[in-house]
Amino acid sequence: MCETGLAPAYLLPHPKDVLATASSYLFGDSADTAYAGRFFEDFTASATRVLLGFGLAVIAGIPLGVLSGRLALVNRLLSTTINALRAVPGISWLPLAMVWFGIGIKTTVFLVALAAFFPVYLNAEAGARQVNPTLLQAGAMMGVRRLRGTFAILLPAAMPNIITGLRLGMGISWAYLVLGELTGVPNGLGALIMDARMLGRIDIIVMGIILIALIGRLCDVGLYLMLRLSFKSARRIP
């Protein structure tokens, strides 16, 4: 479309221009242009925000999901509220988050954590609920106490769903990063895209989208491999 002129350059830049912009952004000298050589700084800032938000979602989502999947009382207390909140668009939380946490990393981390929490929670809940009670009863008959049974029987049996939730949560964390970095943070890949929008630099916007997609995919693969290396039950998943 760029070669034929069907799409003007100010709407869809030529891939060569995007590659040249990416080369300058990744490897350029910071003295050349405003965005040259900024990749490492932006990547570090964005990755820190994503990992903090994702970590909070995991810390809250897996225990609450497992409890909700196994205990009817917890499920009744949480399911209505959580299923109602997950229907609220992420951008609706932005003004409230800025009032609560101000401009900066806290607001971004909150939005990322909120977005990642729901898939982590829901998949942990589904996995825990689907575990055959016979497995836990057999463990109890062999003298396995409840706490040990949770880690030795329940969580391994629910691992396929938990992994699915973690991977979905990691992906949506990167998706919400741009929204979180709308709050006026000085660096980050989302902030780069928003700055480029203000300047009309479509090539930088396209480059930022591609970089987020690549980094998100690498994080997904890294998370999956880390889980398989850390848990025997994860290695049994084809």
Structure description:
With 238 residues, the chain is an all-alpha fold. It has helices at 15-27, 39-70, 72-85, 90-101, 105-130, 133-141, 146-180, 189-199, 202-230, 232-235. α2 packs parallel to α5 (105-130), α7 (146-180) packs antiparallel against α9 (202-230) and α8 packs antiparallel against α9 (202-230).
Short description:
By secondary structure, the chain is mainly alpha-helical.
Strand content: under 5%
| Whole-number mean pLDDT | 88
Rg for CA atoms: 22 Å
Helix content: over 70%
**Low-pLDDT ranges:** none
- The outline comes out as elongated
Order of helices and strands: HHHHHHHHHH
Count of helix runs = 10
Major beta sheet, specifics? none
The total beta strand count reads 0
Give the N-terminus to C-terminus distance in angstroms. Answer: 41 Å
Layout of secondary structure:
Blueprint: H1 15-27, H2 39-70, H3 72-85, H4 90-101, H5 105-130, H6 133-141, H7 146-180, H8 189-199, H9 202-230, H10 232-235
Keywords, separated by commas or semicolons:
10 helices, elongated, 238 residues, mainly alpha
